[in-house]
Amino acid sequence: MTSGTAALHAVPVFTDIDLDTRLISPQSVRDLIGPRTKVVIAVHMSGLPCDMDAFARLAHDTGVTILEDCAQAHGGRLGGRLLGGLGTAAGFSMNESKQMTTGDGGFVTTNDDEVARIASLFRDKTYLRDGSVGRGGQPIPFFALNYRANGLHAAVGLAQLGKLAGLVQRRDDIARRYYAELADLKNFDLPRLTDGAEPSWWPVAGRYTGGDGRRDELVEALAAEGLTISTGMSPASNILRTELVRMKRYYPLTPAVPAFWRDTEYDPDGCPNVDELQRTVIRLPVDQRYSDEDVEQTIAGVRKVWAHLVD
Predict the structure, then answer these.
(1) Catalytic residue among 38, 98, 163, 248
(2) How far is residue 303's CA from residue 182's CA, in Å, rounded to a whole number?
(3) Domain of 94?
């Protein structure tokens, strides 16, 4: 997302999350809106729907365009409406780790005909494929890249789409068991859901809230029980501390900063709730391939570790 923004020579601005929901905070976004703000990207992290009503009000009040990051949110809903259809456009990832996959790549959804036209051109070097021009006659109206999927990707994607509803339901069944059977644990906090949310569920981002720095000890004990537990919300724990953002490292072979980014400064400590989540998160596995026995063993293992180390 950051790289895609910078690729357009747009300046990415980062906002903090709400620790209770684990999602981007609409109020934090509102506080950062300025005269040059054009777009806000609402990230449905871990398959949890953002408060899109709040973002719709933000768009109404400020005129910004709302996009959705649905990379982990295939089949999720808010108020009965599918995620990816609530903003002007949305992006979905289709790599091998997602709820549905074509092996890699992604797709865009939009409710705007002009956005659809431009997106269709941009994915294919702006080539017109409607038969209106012959070879040698392509007008190439603007800069674009080659992001075309092929027929094999499409066939796999259509087959996956037919399975999506059942897949999301199974993930929901697993997550509901975690909420029902682990919510009473001392110093363990599960995400608060946005009103009307029907998540598609990624690993559930629980938090150890004991405040004694023992999260890693707990994770080691959970691993010793044979549980698949992770502690990272994303490959980079905080985008503000990556070389890309900290040094505004745009080019691979030179440290030169492009003109559009030169006057921007970032505070590496500007998203304290992100840091706190990364320090305390214990992600519970959610996978439609888990059997009931797998889920029961996960719950039993978590309760066993808590009984020995926390209670």
Answers:
(1) 98
(2) 7
(3) 2-105+149-309
